[in-house]
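We modelled the chain as a single entity of 353 amino acids. Its sequence is:
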Amino acid sequence: MLDRDDTDALIEQVSVAIRDKSPLKIGGGNTKAFYGLETSGTVLSTRQHCGIVSYEPNELVLTARAGTPLAEVEKALADNGQMLPFEPPSFGVDATLGGTIACNLSGPRRPYAGSARDFLLGTTIVNGRGERLRFGGEVMKNVAGYDVSRLMAGSFGTLGFILEASLKVLPRPAKTTTVVLLYAPTKAIEQLNKWAGQPLPISATCYGGDSVYVRLEGAATAVDKSRRLLGGEEIDGNEFWRKLREQEHDFFDSKTPLWRIAVAPATPPLALQGKSLIEWNGAQRWLLSDAEPSEVRNVVSAAGGHAILFKNGNRAGDVFQPLASGVNEIHRRLKLALDPHGIFNPGRMYRDL
């Protein structure tokens, strides 16, 4: 378990980049390098800036440096019967905490527990002026004004370099089980949303191949009662949910462009060619399709949602949902305020940012 504070060297590298007007390409384990637009620049690595800074199991708070392996964080929590509630995917053994926060990726538990951003209590960053700044703290209610720390979640390193992140953690559930039921697509979405409105200890759902998978977690009595209510076949779902989270499920074994679609949970099946898999009670839908990006986005927009080209396909085009002019202006001003010289991951999310 490495413990190294590389802050001074990182700030020096940022300062040199500012002086030379040279872009920096932030990287850690590079397990999520496929996500977003391709960018270039001198590598600014988190790998040597690692280690758990503090962990108070009784306080349910962990602080670690950006280059700390995600597996190391999860092991420390597991040893104390705790977990990262948002169940982040690793996409490889080299995944780091910094990359997890920067991409704001969450797993099957996200709609029931919250996202990575929701559990981010505070961050320490280096901004585009070479300044070391601390935002937030180590308690939930510590923010007056703008919660700048949470801007780092999902910013893909375009607003600053994350040095440390403080996260709220939670105890592992007392009991977990998974049931499988057979449904047609439209009925499956209806049923998932019906269950979502009931006091059931659901912590994950998935629909694909005419099968609905539902994970129940919590107190043993609540899980057992709900399991009898739902019916279906009970399975040991640990491996199923792991494969789904890490995209090792058979569905993802394809070189076809993979779209990540967000719509209202009760939205009926979308009229798009390709193969789909549904999560989060219908709110997150994965689509494997060779359809034109404009077609995918038009259909999804008509349903009130948005679509991201998550993997494969043309990364030189629009990967993320194009922004409305007003929203784009907000993004531009944030970038200017935190990274005025435009050195951090330029163009990683949008070409003009």
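As a brief sanity check on the tokenised model: The two ends are 36 Å apart (CA to CA). Residues 7-20 form the longest helix (14 residues).
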